[in-house]
Amino acid sequence: MTTWIHEQRLAAVHQAVLDTGARTVLDLGCGDGDLFLRLVQESRFEKLVGVELSADALDRLRAKLAEQAEPPAAHIELVHASMIEPGPGLSGFDCAVLLETLEHLEPERLTVLETALFHKMRPTSVIVTTPNADYNELLGVPAHRFRHPDHRFEWGRRKFRSWAEGVGRRNGCRVVLSDLAGAHPFYGGVSQMAVFTKESVTAAR
């Protein structure tokens, strides 16, 4: 069962993927498949690939896929790998999604992720969500703690915007940012999302 917050986040990212017009999607850090299982239900997708470092999580996702009443229309692949060390089979997708995975990396490894994502995998669109630290006060999270013990950092909206705009500028992408799961007038949403689209694609539209 998902919480209201996670449900809102999943719905927003699901819609953002559809809005890109993607036919092939890479779910980086797919975990147990909260987003992946939603995308599988869409007939428009030709290929869906989930990448996850946890073998146990991939096993749980495989079991969930096996329980579905009808086989997915898309070609499905689950890959046990790190998103910062992508193999050649992970390049050239229409869209890549990082749903609440960014904050699990050490900050000094974000440059490695950027290179892997925008120079090796090279998807046309990239969707990234991460917790909004500005909202932590409303959640009762103390200033000296993160929401989850495995988080290596949590950014407020200003820091996230600065990072996303820098990534977009360095990699020739237009960036659109939005709040997820609420829109408090001062704190914003519980999470935040950046959608990167290659400038060559936006110019052609």
What does this structure look like?
By secondary structure, the chain is α/β, with parallel strands linked by helices. It has helices spanning 4-19, 36-40, 55-67, 110-121, 136-139, 157-171, 199-204; strands spanning 24-28, 47-52, 75-80, 95-99, 125-131, 173-180, 191-198. It has one domain (4-204): Vaccinia Virus protein VP39 (Rossmann fold, 3-Layer(aba) Sandwich). 35% of the residues lie in helices and 22% in strands. The mean pLDDT is 93.
Question: Main attributes?
Answer:
22% strand, Rossmann fold, seven-stranded mixed beta sheet, alpha/beta
Topology readout:
Layout lengths: L3 H16 L4 E5 L7 H5 L6 E6 L2 H13 L7 E6 L14 E5 L10 H12 L3 E7 L4 H4 L17 H15 L1 E8 L10 E8 H6 L1
Parallel strand pairs: 1-2, 1-4, 2-3, 4-5
Antiparallel strand pairs: 5-7, 6-7
CATH class: Alpha Beta
What CATH calls the topology is: Rossmann fold
The percentage of residues in β strands lies in 15-25%
Q: Tell me roughly what share of residues is in helical segments.
A: 25-40%
Q: How widely separated are the two ends?
A: 39 Å
Main beta sheet: strand number and arrangement?
7 strands, mixed
The low-pLDDT segments are: none
User: What's the average pLDDT?
Assistant: 93
